[in-house]
Amino acid sequence: MVPDYHALAAFHAVAELCSFRQASERMGVTRSAVSQAVRRLEERLGVALFQRTTRSVVLTEEGTALFERLAPALQDISVAVEVTTDRQDRPSGLLKLAVSSIADRFLSGPYLAGFLSAYPDIRLDLTLTDLPFDVVGDGFDAGVRLGEFIEKDMVAVPIADQERQVVVCSPGYLARHGEPSHPRDLLEHRCIGWRPRHDVAAYRWEFAEEGHEFRVDVDAAITVNQMGTMVDLAVAGAGITFGMETSFAPHLESGALVKVLEPYCPPFDGFYLHYPSRRTAPPKLRALINYVRQQRGRSA
User: pTM for the whole thing?
Assistant: First the structure.
């Protein structure tokens, strides 16, 4: 049987997005064309690949088996075409990244601006998320998040050597309420917490003492889902907060915020650019990998 690559690509897009409409938008064709391509593939294989209702599209057992085998092959084809057409060694195209909102070193304007200046034919599509995500399943080229959350089958390239989480507040808050001497003292202070979404647990306040890690379950007076608001509230003296040191850097430098409990806030492995180990990185992703390595080398 001669493969129908258009039909296979249509099937893959529908399976990945669970939607004929979204698949048609990704492929730049009509929804009818996608439906016909999938129907043609089902007829040639003699099996149903999807269970369709008015509200959902779900893979059948046969469809699931085909999708699992097909995805790596289509990726290899895509990379082969991209490499072949990259005649002038000028990486190009849309690079889709899922990035933790607290990866400040990576998200800083100069960092990304420098990358785009070095590779003007690449366009970036950044999705900022602090929820779990699947680089392959969610259609990203790569992700940026803390090393402890990266799956073992990923290739991970460090963005910087180490990061640190710190406890901060305004000088005015310290003058009114005094300085905590141990993380447990935070239970007696007004704290400002953060979480990425209203139905997700708040970010943990984690510390270390004599080599032993522990956390303090603060009873936050305020909890927000936007990092900038959390920082603004701390600067205004609303309470003590906790987060990546880089998130507070400008306000620490100006004196609007001060660090407390520093002996209990050791450095740790920080953020990594990561991508599937079973994929051959296309030129646009290789360009970002090389740029990350160069920037890390300069900051070392």
Answer: 0.61
